[in-house]
Amino acid sequence: MRLADVERFIGVPYCEHTQDCADFVVLVQRELFGRHVELPNGRPRGVRGQVTLGELSKPYGARTDAPNDGDLVVMFERGRPAHVGVYFWLAHEGHVLHSNERDGCSVLHRVRDLPAFGAPIEGFYTWV
Fold it and tell me: What does pTM read for this prediction?
């Protein structure tokens, strides 16, 4: 994947009601990879919903130790798997594109910087 393909998704506004981290993953999957990912109706949203989001995400993928561009990334937040993003290999290292309330928009982090950001990785998941 080229950085130019990913950059257009940086800065997409976060909204817990209409564009949270899971909605953002769905958007990136559809527009960059042509994948149709459907989230459960009535799924939890925002900060209250994040505690169950990690578990809701796992059925969409098979765990992998060798992620590829577009794979689902589940991250810990507040000690639980509660945040999701999209993996990319850019500039010779792994990155995660994700949307979060703290920044108020989508951002691109190097995998190695996520623990300092407060979102260490729980696992990588290849889409099923």
Answer: 0.90
